[in-house]
Amino acid sequence: xxxxxxxxxxxxxxxxxxxxxxxxxxxxxxxxxxxxxxxxxxxxxxxxxxxxxxxxxxxxxxxxxxxxxxxxxxxxxxxxxxxxxxxxxxxxxxxxxxxxxxxxxxxxxxxxxxxxxxxxxxxxxxxxxxxxxxxxxxxxxxxxxxxxxxxxxxxxxxxxxxxxxxxxxxxxxxxxxxxxxxxxxxxxxxxxxxxxxxxxxxxxxxxxxxxxxxxxxxxxxxxxxxxxxxxxxxxxxxxxxxxxxxxxxxxxxxxxxxxxxxxxxxxxxxxxxxxxxxxxxxxxxxxxxxxxxxxxxxxxxxxxxxxxxxxxxxxxxxxxxxxxxxxxxxxxxxxxxxxxxxxxxxxxxxxxxxxxxxxxxxxxxxxxxxxxxxxxxxxxxxxxxxxxxxxxxxxxxxxxxxxxxxxxxxxxxxxxxxxxxxxxxxxxxxxxxxxxxxxxxxxxxx
Length: 446
Known about the structure:
Strands 11, 12, 13, 14, 15, 16, 17, 18 and 19 form a nine-stranded mixed β-sheet that branches. This protein folds into two domains: 4-326, 3-Layer(aba) Sandwich (Arginase, Chain A); 333-445, no CATH class. It has helices at residues 28-36, 55-59, 76-93, 126-137, 154-160, 208-226, 252-262, 279-290, 311-327, 401-414; strands spanning 4-9, 45-48, 63-64, 99-104, 114-115, 143-147, 166-173, 197-202, 230-235, 266-269, 333-334, 345-349, 352-354, 359-368, 377-383, 389-395, 421-428, 433-438, 442-445. The radius of gyration is 21 Å and the shape is globular. Helix 1 (28-36) links the parallel strand 1 (4-9) and strand 2. It is of the alpha/beta class. The chain contains ten helices and 19 strands. The two termini are 42 Å apart. It holds the Pfam family Hist_deacetyl. It comes from Desulfosporosinus metallidurans.
C-alpha cells in the first residue's frame, strides 16, 4: 500500500490584502472539503505538522538583499511554508512515505536567486529551498522539478538555470498572454547546464486533453532520459477553468490525471485562486491520485463556460514547438572583467520586475564556463536605479577546484574598499558554508 504524506498549512494569519487573490481564506474551503470526504481517515494517509525553515536553509538557495535582516519581519509565513516542504521532502527521502503533498501557502515559484521583496505573491522559493536542503543534508544528487502552475516558474528557473543536476520543466500559459511574460522555448539553460531547462508555453484554452498529450509525448520522455532521484511537482492550480487570473481549461479530473502521469515524489502547492470553485476539488483529486485512490468521481459544481482547444489543434502546435526547441543553439556572450579569475565568463543581464511592490531589480549575471561542474556564479544586483549594489557569489555543488577557487577570489575582491557595494552573500554549496558581508558590519559566517 502507498503511504502518502499530507502537510496542511493554510496560513490564515497571512495575506496580501482582503480582496487580493492570495488572501487568508484561500485554503479554507479545501480544508473543509478534505475533512468532509474523509481523506484524513484513509489508512495510507499520514499527516505531518508544519515546520519552520532556518535562515541558513533559505540562504543556501537565495540571497536576501540588501541583508537578511531587512526581511525578517515579513518572513514568518514564508519560512513555515518552506520548512513544511523540507519536512515532507525529507520524510520521502528517508522512506517514511511513498509520496506527499505540501498544502501550504504562501507560494514561491516566482522568487528567484536574488530577493528584494515579494513578486508574483512570492518571497521565498519553497521548492528551491527544499531541493538544496536535500542535496546538502540527505545526499540527493539529481532532482527534476515539473512546474504545472499556469504562470511560468521564472524564479525556480532562475535559481537552477546553471545547474546541470536539476532538470526544470515548466508547462504554462504562453508568456505573451500572461504574467510574468517569460518561459519561451529558447530559455534552455546556462552555459554549463544547456538543455536542462524545458519551457512549454501553451495557448490559452488548453484543457485536459492538451495537457495530458504534452505530458505523455514530451515531458515524461524527458524525465525518463534524465532519470532523477526525485521528482517534485510545483502543483499550481490556476490552470483550472474557473481561475480568475488565467485562461486555461483544466478540470479537477484533469489534475488527477496529471498527478497520475507524473507520479511525483512530492507535490508542493503553488498558485490557484478559484477558492470555492476549484481548489477544494482539485486538491481532492490530486491527493486521491497520490494515494492510489480513484479520483474520477471528483466533479466541481461549475461547468466549462468556454470550449477547450481540441487535441487536433494542440498536436501540430506542440510538434512545431518541439522542432523550435530542438533547433535552438546556445549563443552566449563572453565578457571577462579585469578582476575576474581566470576562465571565460558568460555575461547575462537579467532585469526583474517586482509587480507586488512596483520596483525594478537590475541584475548583471556572470557564469564561469566549465567542463567539470556547474561553474561559479557571480551576480551584481541593484534595486531600481540605486547606485549601491549587492553581490551574490555561488560556488556550486560538486564544484571543481578551479571554480571553487574562483569563487573565493571573487569573494575576497568583494570585501575590498568599495564605494558602490553595500553587501554580499557567498553560497559555498560545495561545503555547505554561508558567509554574509556588509560594508558597515563586516564579515560573518552563518
